[in-house]
Automatic annotation (TrEMBL), chains A, B, C, D:
GO terms for cellular component: cytoplasm. Residues 9-132 form the Acyl-CoA dehydrogenase/oxidase N-terminal domain. Belongs to the acyl-CoA dehydrogenase family. This is Acyl-CoA dehydrogenase. Residues 138-239 form the Acyl-CoA oxidase/dehydrogenase middle domain. Residues 251-401 form the Acyl-CoA dehydrogenase/oxidase C-terminal domain. PANTHER family: ACYL-COA DEHYDROGENASE FAMILY MEMBER 11, MEDIUM-CHAIN SPECIFIC ACYL-COA DEHYDROGENASE, MITOCHONDRIAL-RELATED. The keyword Cell cycle does not apply. GO terms for biological process: fatty acid beta-oxidation using acyl-CoA dehydrogenase. GO terms for molecular function: acyl-CoA dehydrogenase activity; flavin adenine dinucleotide binding. Keywords: FAD, Flavoprotein, Oxidoreductase.
Length: 407, 407, 407, 407
C-alpha cells in the first residue's frame, strides 16, 4: 500500500505550487477587477494571456493529457493518479485551470479529438486547442428534456443534400459565450428510429460562425455567469455542415459521450478537492483572526468541531478520488464506472456543505467576492447537476451494487 | 387551540393573493428584463412604481405596521400573527415586499422612527417612508469586527463644535446603493469608555448627501447584488450632522438596536416560509412534467420522499414562526427572545436546504434565473448571517434553555 | 390564533404532572429492579398495579377516550388536542402510559371495540380492558411479506364447518407475551380472490388460550424486549373461533385497519415529544454538572448549539403534532391523513436524532439504563417502523402533495 | 500510488474469508442460542472454544501483533495496513474477533504488556493472554468524572506499608464480567499533587480475585450487555497489591494510556468498516427479495440512492482507515494523531448512520436479533463514546489543524 504520488507528479506539484504562489494567488484581485471593468464580460482577459505564457514556459501546460496520448505533450502524459494532485491545486482558484490549458470543457473536447477525431479534424481543431489559441464547446444538454438520459435528446441531425442539417436547442453550453470559442461538438439524433437506442445519436463539428447557429442568452447559476467562459443557451436553425464533420462515424454519438464524460467528472472532483481544501485553510485563518464575546473563534469548541469535521471530510473525499483515479489507471474507464459514480455523487455535495460551513465562519463577508468561497460554492453546487444530476448516477450505481451483492 | 388567523388577516390574505395573481406573478419576467436592461442597476424600476400605485389603491400598503402604531395606517395595525400569513405570500416573489411598502430594511427603520423618533424626525423621515416616497438604510455591521457583538463596534460618533462627527466604516448596508435612499440610521460609539458597555453606543441620522459619507462599493452574496436595493460598503470620513440627529438620546443606541432587530428577524422568517412553500409547489409541478428513464419524476419513490419531507418541514417552520408571533403578540418582544432565536436559527437553514432539494429536482435549469429558486436560495443563505450569524443566537438561546431546565 | 390547550386539558395536565412527580418519577428505579428480578419478564409488575390503583382514584384514567365515546369515561372524552399534552407527559417515562390505562396497543384496540364491536363483544372484552383488568393484542404484521401493504397479508381466515379457521404467522405482536393479554384481534384474508383488494381482509377475535395459537418467541429491537408488554412472533395453526368473532363483518378488515392506525400513530408521536423534551432537560442538567478541560459543558459553544437546536426541534415537532390533532378534531381522521403522515414520518426520526445528541452529552453513561434516554431512543427508532415504515407513508404523502399542487 | 494490501495480508485475508465461510457465519445462530440458554451470561461459550481451536490450528491467531513484536507470533507481525483488511472481515460478526484472539480489550492489553511489562509480568500474564487461556480488563473510565480528560481521574493508588492500596470506582470496564478475566490493568492517581499533571497517574496490575475488588453490576448500552465479555462497574475498596505490580514505573500511567489508546481506536474503526460493509450487502440482498406495491425494492429509486450512498460512504471510511494505518506504519502513532482522531470521530458515526439506513430497508425485522445489524448499530454507537467521546478528539484535532494552517 502506498498513498504517495509518483516522483513525476510530485515534481510537477512542487513547480505548480511555486507558480501559484508567485503568479496566480497574487493576481486574484486583478482578475476580479479586469472582469468587472470589461465591456464584454465574455472577452478574453489580458491577465489570463500573460499567465498562460508564463505557464507554458514553465512547462505547466496541458497536464491533463494522459500517457495514452503522450505524443502530444513534452511531459509524455500523466496518469489520472498523477494528474489528480495537480488538478487539486488548480481548483484552489476557480479561474486558474485555463492558465494551464486544463480547463473544462476544453480538456474533455481535446480528448475527444485525440480519441475519435480524424487526422484532418485533429489538424484543424486539436492543434490550436492544445496551443491554447482557441476554445471549444460541447453541446449536449437540452432545455426541454431530461438529457441525462441520452435517448431523450431531441436536436435533429439530418442528412440532406450531402450535408448535415442541425435543428434544435441546447443549453448550459459551457464556453459558448467566450469570444475565443471557435468550434462546437454537437450531440444530436441522426437516426431517431433506430431500434438500438444507443445508435440513434451522432456528434458533429459546428464552427462557431456557421449560419443558423445563434446564442440565445447567457445563463447564470446561483447568480454567477462564470464569465468569461460562461454557459449559454443555443439555437440551431438549419445549421449546415459538411458530412466530414461527423466525429467517429454516424450513429456513434452515444459511444463518444460515454467515453468523454467519465474523465470530465473526475476532473471536476479533483478541482473541488482543492476548492474544499482552500476553504478549510481560510476557515483556520479566520478562526485565529476574529474574536467574539472575548474569545478567539479558534478556541470555541464548535469551531474546532467544524474544522475537525472539514479536515476529515476533505481527506475522505480526496482518497475516494485518488482511488478512483488509480482504478481508471489500472483497469480503464469502463471498469471504473462504479467508482466514478461514487466520486461524482459524493464529492460535489460534500464540498458544497464544507464550503457552506467555512463561509459561515467568515460572517457576512464570507458570502461576498472578497473570498473565493462563494464562487467555489457555486461551482460545487453546479457540479451536482453537471454531466447529469447526481440522482441519475446513483440510480446506475445503486443498481450495479445490488447486482454485485445480490446478483 | 386554534390555528386559524383572524378574520381581518384572512380577508387581507385573500385580497393579497388576488393581487399577486393579477399583478405580481405575471410581472416576474418584466422585472428581470427591466433590471437587466437598466443602465444603473440601483435605479428605481418603473414596474415597481406602477405596482406600488396599484397596491396602495388596493389597500395593501404598510401591512407590517403593528396595532401599537395603528394611527399611521388605515387598516389600524396588524399583530405579528395577522401579518405573518401576508408576509409569507410576499416572500413568494423576492422583490414583491417593496410593492406593498413592506420591505427590509425600511419596515424596521419605520418602526424605529415610530418608537424612538422625535416629532420632527418623524415629520421629516417617517412620513415619506410610509408614503413610499423615499427609502432608508440601517448602518450597523462593520467589516473589521464581529459586529454581532455590539460592544465590538468601532465607528466613532464624537461630539465636536456642537455637532456629531462620524468616522468609520460599515458594510452590508442594505439599501445604501438604491437611488431613493435618503436617510441612514447609523450606529456607532459615542462614549467608548463608559463602564456600562451597553451605554457606549448612540444612533444618529445621516442624510445620504452629507459630505464625508461615501459608498465604497456594492457587495454581492453568492453572486447576487440584490439590485436595485442592494448592499454596500460605506466610508464615514468626518461626517458632520446636527446634535438633534441623535435618536432617542445619547448612549441609547444599544437599546434601539435590541428593539429593532427582533421583529426584523421574524419578517425574514415569514417571507422565507413563502419562498420555501413556492419552491415546494414548483417542485410538484416539475415532478409531473418531466420523465426520466420512462417514468414520470412524480412516480419515483425518491421524489415522493423529497416532496413529503419538504411539505413536513415547511409546515413545521411555519408553525414555529406563527407560535413565535403569537408569543410576541401576547407577551412582547423581550419575553419572546427564546422563540425569536429559535425561529432565526432554524427557518433560514431549513428553507435553504429545502430550496436546494427543489432546485435539484429541476435539473440544471433550477439554478438559473428562469425560476425564482436560486435567488430565494441566496436570500435564505444570507439570512443565516443577517442580523447576526446563527451561532451567536444559538449561544444565547442555548444558555437561556440551560438556565431554564438546570437553573 | 391560540396555542393554548383547553381549560379541561390544562387542569388534567396539572394533576397529571403532580402525579408523575409524586408517584412515577420516584418509582423508576423500582420498576427497573422489579423487572430485573422477575422470574418471568412478561409477568405483571406489582409496582404497575399499585400505580394503576392510584391513577384510577386520581381520575387520571382512560384519558385517551375521545368525546365521541364520552359515555365510557367520567371525564366525558378528550379531543386529540386535549389529549396530546397529557400523552406527552406520559411519554417522559416509557412504561408510564399503562399506569393510566393509556398504553399501546390497548388504547387502539379499545377504540376498535368502541367503533366496530358488537354489544356482546364490548361486554366481554371492552369492559375489562377499560377497567385495566386484561390486556389485548392487535395482530397485523407478518414476517414473510411487506405487510404495510395490507394486500400482501397472507394469514388465512377460512370459513369451515360454521367456524373461522386461521392459519398463518404474525410477528411484532405487541403485548402478546404479556401474561394479562387475553384477546387478540387478528387481521387476515377471508376472501383472497375478491377483485376488490380492500374487501379481501377480515378481522376476527381470538382468545389467547384458543388451541392452535402459539407464541414462537419474543422479539427484541436494538436489544430491548420491552418487557413486560413485549413483542412476539405468533403461529396460527388451525385456530378455530366462532363466526360471531368477526369484527364489523366479513371483508371489512381493511376498513377497520384504516380507522385504527391513524390515531395510534399520533399517540406514538405525542409520547415521543415527551421523550424528546425530557432528554433535552436531562442534557441541560448534565451540562451544568460536568466540566471538561476546565470549563463547564454548559459554557462550551458546541453544547449551547446542541441545546438550542434541540429546543427548536422539539418545539417544531410538538407544533406539528398539535396542528395535526387540531385538524383531526375539526375535520376527522380521513381528511387529516396528510398531517398524520407528516407527523408519523417526521417526529420519530427527529426525536431519535435529538435523543442521540442528548445521550452523547452524557458520556458513556448516557447509553446505559441509568437514564431513560437509551430506552426512549429505541422507542423512537422502533416507531420509524411501527404501523408501517416511514417510506410507505412518504410515498402516499408525496403523491398527495404532488396532486395538490400539480393536479 | 498503490491501494492493494501486501501479499502476506492478501494471503491471510483469503484464508480468513474461507474460515469465516466455513466456521463462523454458519455458527451465528448457534452463538445466539448458547448465549440465550446460558445460566450465567458471562460464562465462556463452548462454541467460542471450538472455534478458537480451529482458528489457532489454521494459523489465524494473534493477527493483531505488529512487526515490532514479531517474536511473539509465527506470522512474524503484521503492520496496521496489513491487519486492517483482516480486522474488517472479523468485524462482520461482532463476536468473532475473540475466535482469532483479536478482541478488545485483550489486544490492547497484550500490547501494553509487550511494550511496558517487566519480564515477570509478561511471563505471568502476557503468555496466557497470547494463548487465549485467560482474558483481561483495562480500567480507566470513572462514573463521576469526565475521564476522557485523564487529569480528572479520581481513583487513588497510594503507597502504604510496601504495597499499593487502591480506592475508587470505575465503570465501562470491558471484560470485567467475563469469567475468564483474570487480570485488571488499573489507571489511578498515585501522586495527585504533582505539578506536572501528566505525572500524577500510575497503572497497576490487579488480579481479579484480589480482596476489596468487587463488581457492582453489569452495564448495558442501548439494551445490550455484550455478554459474555460485557462491561461492568467496579468498586476498589482498599485493594492491596505488591509494589512490583506497577507498570513501567510510578507516575507513568499517562504515558501508557497515550500509547495504548490510539491503536485501540483504529481496531474499532477497522472492524466497523466490516460491520458497515456487511450491512450494505444485507441491504442489497433484502432489496431483491422484497416487493412493495408491485415493485421490487431494488427498483425503487430511493433504495438505489440509499445503496449508492452507502457504498460510497463505506469506501471513503475504509480509505480513511487505511491511510491512517499507512501513516502509523511509516511515521508511528505519535505523528499520526491527526489521522487517528479523524478516523475515530468519523467512522463510528458514519457506520452508525449507514447501518440505520440498512436496518430501515429491512422493515421491523431489521431491528431484531435475526440480523446482525442491530447489534452492530449498538457497537458503532458505543464507539462514539469509547476511548473518549468524539467531541474531545475533535477538540484536539481542530486545534491541531488550525495551528497547521494558521500557525
Amino acid at each position: 500500500m502506498d498513498f504517495t504520488a509518483s516522483k513525476k507528479s510530485r515534481d510537477l506539484l512542487e513547480r505548480l505550487q511555486v507558480f501559484m504562489d508567485q503568479h496566480v494567488y497574487p493576481s486574484e484581485h486583478c482578475h476580479a477587477e479586469q472582469l468587472r471593468a470589461a465591456e464584454n464580460r465574455f472577452a478574453a482577459l489580458p491577465l489570463i494571456d500573460e499567465l498562460k505564457d508564463k505557464a507554458r514556459k514553465a512547462g505547466l501546460w496541458n497536464l491533463f493529457v494522459p500517457p495514452s496520448h503522450g505524443e502530444y505533450v513534452p511531459h509524455g502524459g500523466l496518469t489520472y493518479s498523477e494528474y489528480a494532485p495537480l488538478a487539486e491545486v488548480m481548483g484552489r482558484v476557480t479561474w486558474s485551470p485555463e492558465v494551464f490549458n486544463c480547463n473544462a470543457p476544453d480538456t474533455g473536447n481535446m480528448e475527444v479529438f485525440m480519441n475519435y477525431g480524424s487526422k484532418a479534424q485533429q489538424e484543424q481543431w486539436l492543434k490550436p486547442l492544445l496551443a491554447g489559441a482557441i476554445r471549444s464547446s460541447y453541446a449536449m444538454t437540452e432545455p426541454q428534456v431530461a438529457s441525462s438520459d441520452a435517448t431523450n435528446i431531441e436536436l435533429r441531425i439530418d442528412k440532406q443534400d450531402g450535408e448535415w442539417v442541425l435543428n434544435g436547442r441546447k443549453w448550459f453550453i459551457t464556453g459558448a459565450m467566450y469570444e475565443r470559442t471557435k468550434i462546437f461538438i454537437v450531440m444530436g439524433k441522426s437516426d431517431p428510429d433506430n431500434p438500438d437506442r444507443h445508435r440513434q445519436q451522432s456528434q458533429v463539428l459546428v464552427p462557431w460562425d456557421t449560419p443558423g447557429l445563434s446564442i440565445v442568452r447567457p445563463l447564470t447559476t446561483l447568480g454567477y455567469d462564470d464569465a468569461p467562459i460562461g454557459h449559454a443557451e443555443l439555437l440551431f436553425n438549419n445549421v449546415r455542415v459538411p458530412l466530414d464533420n461527423v466525429l467517429l462515424g454516424e450513429g456513434r454519438g452515444f459511444e463518444i459521450a460515454q467515453g468523454r464524460l467519465g474523465p470530465g467528472r473526475m476532473h471536476h472532483c479533483m478541482r473541488l478537492i482543492g476548492a474544499g481544501q482552500r476553504s478549510l485553510e481560510l476557515a483556520c485563518q479566520r478562526a485565529v483572526s476574529r474574536s467574539t464575546f472575548g474569545r478567539a473563534l479558534s478556541k470555541h469548541q464548535s469551531v474546532r468541531e467544524d474544522i475537525s469535521k472539514s479536515f476529515s471530510e476533505i481527506e475522505m473525499a480526496r482518497l475516494l478520488v485518488l482511488k478512483t483515479c488509480d482504478k481508471i489507471d489500472r483497469e480503464g474507464v469502463q471498469a471504473s464506472v462504479d467508482m466514478i459514480a461514487a466520486s461524482k455523487t459524493t464529492v460535489p455535495l460534500l464540498v458544497q456543505n464544507l464550503i457552506d460551513r467555512c463561509m459561515q465562519l467568515h460572517g457576512a463577508g464570507g458570502l461576498t467576492g472578497d473570498y473565493f468561497m462563494a464562487e467555489a460554492f457555486n461551482y460545487a453546487r453546479w457540479c451536482r447537476q453537471a454531466d447529469g444530476p447526481d440522482q441519475v448516477h446513483q440510480m446506475a450505481l445503486g443498481k450495479q451494487i445490488i447486482d454485485r451483492y445480490a446478483g
